[in-house]
Amino acid sequence: MSKSCVIIGGGIAGISAALALTKIGVQCTVYELRAAPSTIGGSINLTPNALRLLEFLEVEVQGCRVDSIEIFSLHTGKLLGELPFRKFGPGLRVLREELLRSLLCATDRKGIKVVYDSKLAAIKDDSEDTTVTAVFANGEEVQTNFILGCDGVHSAVRGQYVESSRRPEYTGVVVAYSVIDGSGIKTHFRSTALNSGRFGSLLTSYFDPDRAKIYVGAVMEIKEENDKQGWRVRGNDRQKTMDEIERRYKNSALPCVDELIKEVKDFVFYPVYKLSPGGIWSRGRVLLLGDAAHGMPPQGESTGLAIEDAVLFARVLECTPQTSVEAIFQLYEKTRRPRIDTAYKEAVARWENVKDRSWFLQKVIEWMMWVYLWYKMGDFEASMSYDVRKEEIAIEAEFEPHS
Ligand SMILES: Cc1cc2nc3c(=O)[nH]c(=O)nc-3n(C[C@H](O)[C@H](O)[C@H](O)COP(=O)(O)OP(=O)(O)OC[C@H]3O[C@@H](n4cnc5c(N)ncnc54)[C@H](O)[C@@H]3O)c2cc1C
């Protein structure tokens, strides 16, 4: 196969797509906005199915093994339930920067070019219908067979070309996270815990193989600021956020939580955005993958979804070599939509649950947690055992041969 591809965005979706496409002989170049590899987002949980795909892409990542996510009540200190991975896995808790580093080690080994300091400015349809051109802010123009927009929830590829009206919306929730030295702290959790209360959830987790450090992520409902500058000012008001964290989580029935909060010296503050459901994923020779296509509130599986997008797209491309790029995009989308739509609904429902609520509602949630987990276990198990490499691709006869 002699197709070439430009990938916009050197995050998880972009690098995974480059690895998956290189495996089937597509020549890829990744263009990344930032001057060097970097990312925020703290620690993420890699589910067993995400780990299987990373192995398939020959990516080795270090982290803390997670047999289950434990859910505790901040009010009573009791264990309310668990989401068990061990049957499928286990899972792995890693820093996002560690995952990105591991993905980039794999691109180095494969000789995939990643060009930094390259901000996509525009996309031009070429008169010749077998190519498209990416235009960068530094003036560079690159002509290619197709473009993958892997540039995250605030995607320029989507905003400039695919669907400008679909803008990210604030979810009403901010995450403020910190990484602290965990030595000497006796924790109530095995590896990862969601500590749930009336005023949000506090995520506490080990993320390194030695379990020396602890990630503390405060998920808090915060009023929207008017613009980027407003968020910047709000984020820089460290004392205000520290006061919020203390008001919401201090003096809980879990003594370790107070100790962890005391150790927090600084934090990364960011408002969480999502896209509206559905949306357009492709236009002409340009396709969106990862958060650029289906940014949803963090629900613990989005990284896996971004990697799945990459692996599935490469599979679709591989099994339809005589088909036009537009038809390949349609086939990919048709195959991919059902899983994404289900994950989106689930993510939005779970995210609403981290918002502030009455004492009574919190009590009801705590009482009913085991019923909820029992009821959802079937969906959870189906999601953990899902393998996108086995997804059926329904190739139809009417697909046009490639010009
Ligand atoms: C608080 C939080 C917690 C999360 N926790 C989890 C978790 O526990 N488990 C999980 O699976 N997922 C989690 N996620 C979600 C997960 O991190 C994302 O779904 C995933 O990173 C999406 O990858 P992506 O490559 O699509 O986008 P991104 O990671 O956002 O990467 C986009 C890349 O594109 C680049 N870019 C942007 N604009 C341009 C441009 N104009 N030109 C060139 N490059 C550009 C950016 O610099 C960036 O490198 C969490 C997310 C958040 C916000």
UniProtKB/TrEMBL annotation:
GO terms for molecular function: FAD binding; monooxygenase activity. It holds the Pfam family FAD_binding_3. It comes from the Eukaryota. Residues 6-344 form the FAD-binding domain. Keywords: FAD, Flavoprotein, Monooxygenase, Oxidoreductase. Signal peptide: none annotated. Belongs to the paxM FAD-dependent monooxygenase family. This is FAD/NAD(P)-binding domain-containing protein.
